[in-house]
Amino acid sequence: MLTVYAPASSGNVSVGFDALGLALAPVDGSLLGDCVSIMPGRPDDWVLCIDGPFEHALPTDQEQNIVITSCRRFEKAARAAGADVHPLNITLDKRLPVGSGLGSSASSIVATLVALNRYFNRPLDRPALLQLMAEMEGSISGEIHLDNIAPCLLGGLRLCMPGSARQYGLPWPGHWQTVVAWPGTRLETRPAREVLPASYDRKTVVAHGAQFARFVHHLHQGETVAAAGCMSDMLAEPYRMSLLPGFEEARDALGGMGALATGISGSGPTIFCVADDSRVAESAAQWLRQHYLQNDKGFVHICRADLAGAREV
To answer: Of 60-64, 265-269, 294-298, which gets the smallest average pLDDT?
Structure first.
């Protein structure tokens, strides 16, 4: 049996709307991400079994599941590359909530395609694999982008070029801890994008570009406090706050505790904060458990950057 784990990711990281993504690794060593296993056997068609804490959130019709769709697209692409590909028995351990802002669909896609590519002796190179993953993600979100796919596959903080498979690694401070809180509710990407304006005024675009450039510069210079000071969102957060009850209160409270930055993870409803002190991270996590979670399904994790990305487990 071959099992591949693909970590959760936080898209945008406030300052990099649709362009930045960070892979997440809980400091307690738990797995925050989906696992896909290839089981023994050679069925006539692709067979998917689903388990895990969030299996109930997936379509009952397997043909609507992104894992099966990814299998069929991989089969076509790999055969075009000359590989002898056949259907397999696949098991998805669904560990990430759907519509959470933690790259749930990207995790399933990446785990599936990495597992298949390794099983069939890597018929697709990295650019081809990234492109296929981006297309699968785009079939769900409505647009091709890599801000969850790239960090999930490759690990770390990734700068992604919208509309293409080009991406670049950026340095993420090793001592930073990222606290993520999923309130236990669902917010799909498409409606979260629909609240955004169709265009922005020039002043906002220029200010955003300058802030983004400063963030990248300070990261490369190792100026972590200055980098954190650039982590503000001028493009999406002002319009999405209304979709996230309690976000403004959380941002103010966490800032008062010493968090360096607070923002929306992806399109929400998960939020995150960055701390450079474990005591601040623990205090933030405790506050979020008490005040931001809306039901007993919600969770809070203190994370570091997952530098490994998708991997066999």
So the answer is: 60-64
The residue from 170, 196, 214 where one domain ends is 170
Same domain, 271 and 295: yes
Residue 219 lies in a domain: yes
Note the pTM of the prediction, 2 decimals: 0.95
Which of these, 7, 8, 6, 10, lies nearest to 274 by C-alpha position? 10
pLDDT exceeds cutoff 90 at 139: no
Which among 170, 186, 204 is the end of a domain? 170
Q: Are residues 158 and 189 in the same domain?
A: no
Tell me the CATH number at 131. 3.30.230.10
Does the pLDDT value for residue 246 go beyond 90? yes
Closest of 246, 304, 253 to residue 283, by C-alpha: 253
Residue pair 302/177 in contact by the 8 Å Cβ criterion:
yes
Shared-domain flag, residues 165 and 183: no
- 160: closest CA among 7, 264, 11? 11
Query: In this predicted model, what pLDDT tens digit does every residue of 57-79 receive, in sequence order?
Result: 998 888 899 999 999 999 999 99
12-16, 40-44, 208-212: segment of lowest average pLDDT = 40-44
Contacts of 302 (CB under 8 A, 6+ apart): 26, 27, 28, 177, 178, 179, 278, 281, 282, 285
- Give the dihedral sign, CA 16/138/53/86: negative
DSSP 43: -
Domain that holds residue 112: 2-170
Token duo for residue 228: 């954190």
Phi-psi region of 113 (alpha: psi -120 to 50; beta: other; left: phi over 0): alpha
For the chain, give the percent of residues with pLDDT over 70.
100
User: By the 8 A CB rule, do 293 and 184 touch?
Assistant: yes
Average pLDDT, the chain: 95
Do 132 and 9 reside in the same domain of the chain?
yes
